[in-house]
Amino acid sequence: MRGAPLDPTGPDPTGAVRPLMPMIDGHRRPHGPYTVAAAVLHRLVPEALERSPELVAAHDIEIRAAAPGLGDLVVARRQTVDARLPDEERILVPALRRTSRLANGITEFVREVVPPGTTLMVCNGAQADPTDVELLDVMMRRIPPEALAIVVYSGGPEPPEDRRGAEELWQAVDRCLREGFLHAVAELGARGLARTEPGGELWWRFAQRTATALGGLGRVAEARRVWRQARRSSQDPAVHAACAYGMAMLDARHHAPARRDLAMAREWINTAIAISTLLPDPYDRAFKLGFDRNGLALVELREGRPKAALELVDSALELAVQLGERHPVHRMVLRANRARLLAALGRTKEALDDYGAAIAIDPGFPDYYLDRGNLLARLGNQEEALADYESAMRAGPPLPEAHYNRAELRIAGGDLDGALADLGRVIDLDPSCLDAYINRAGLLAGLERDEEAWRDVRAGLALAPGNPHLLAVLGQLETAAGRLAEARRALDRAIEAAPGLASAWGNRGVLRFEAGDPEGAVEDLSQAIGLEPQPDLYANRAVALRTLGRDAEAAADEERAR
Fold first, then answer.
1. Could you tell me if 120 and 22 are in contact, meaning their C-beta atoms sit under 8 angstroms apart?
2. Do the beta carbons of residue 144 and residue 112 sit within 8 Å?
3. I need a labelling partner for 273 at 20 to 30 A (CA). Which of 250, 255, 391, 449 fits?
4. Distance in angstroms (rounded) separating the CA atoms of residues 373 and 399
5. Residues 487, 475 contacting (CB under 8 angstroms)
């Protein structure tokens, strides 16, 4: 709870509280994901459309996803190809990060339009859907309490049991999977399975969606149980092929890399391919066989055989020709996967062509802009990479990865203020992004903005105690503050944890010089230069060499520094 305790039955009798709206019952059972978000948006969007229609348009995806009842008011300005396809052609499941992006977008919209000094009250917070829990957390973090105080009560009235029939549950499950609301799919799908006859068509649709959601949530054992139950309940070869593919992906894509079983994944995907080869309908056979070969390509890649993976993706693309104009998302995924493999094999021109083809199929899908931007950045095409990152930003709700990648480009280009702004944006959107704290702390320390750097080091070490990059910055800050013993402890720990980290050796070289040990400074700075030659390292070693009277070597380092 944030703010002063309030009586959940009504406003504060002193009149000090200005409720934004009547208390929202956040229980997920009656309305599902984004129950709280939908109520807030229904309160704010109509007025915002009159005052700031461009602001509503800028958040069309978030508003329509969280409050579908506003779909007639809020035009879909940005839309992916997937949204216009029939059910059998929608093959992409949004990643878990999508709800975080939606929460940040909704929060930024609310922050702009909410009447200041108001209070949002929510009851049944303990029974809220994870989408609302995440949203409330982001709103509390990113909206100042003087603009919107948020009070959440864990309890509240108990709603009636979910009495929806199987068809109504199916509509909810289908929508939630398309939007990436995986927790709701897992919960509602289980209810749908219990209310339908095992082995029937509707039961199978529930099973496929539920197992897919459970796998995406990392609930692998539960997903396996659903796939196995489907295999026990059906003799349909298409069902068995889909189950075999699903089981393969659980082993190949396990969220913990150490628990991936690629041998078992290969067994399952081979089974899927064997069955798909025998499907009687040529259209179904071409699609499903290509889909399965793409899955086997993942196994080949993770077993270190990118050329074999490429051959499989090529064969899948050849099969996709038989599909005509149908299944554009399938073709898009295949072209993007081939682009990744070509890039890994050093065939960058072909990789860029394939990324371009994938993006042309769906310019509203942000992921491939990021991938192509990363490849362009590695090739030194900074302006084109920057354009791709910014296209990814425009394509959908806030995307921290695009800002992080743009920050790296800006650092390389010397735009440190722009890089700091981007890294700040990343941390605002995702406070768990360790790399953003590391990079910003290093930049701030280099700019001698030590107090700000200290804050980032502390925040980063709270996430990852003992992180060598942060310890290297900590040692730099402690040296600047004159606390040389503390600096030595931090830098020794950094080098012990990461002997190949040039910045730790370089910072310890500076420390040793400050401590009156120029020979030790030369030793550490030489180690740093051997790992990652940088002008400042040569300049610092030159100072230490002159102190030792080694003027010729110092002059050579000064020349290298220039």
1. no
2. no
3. 255
4. 14
5. yes
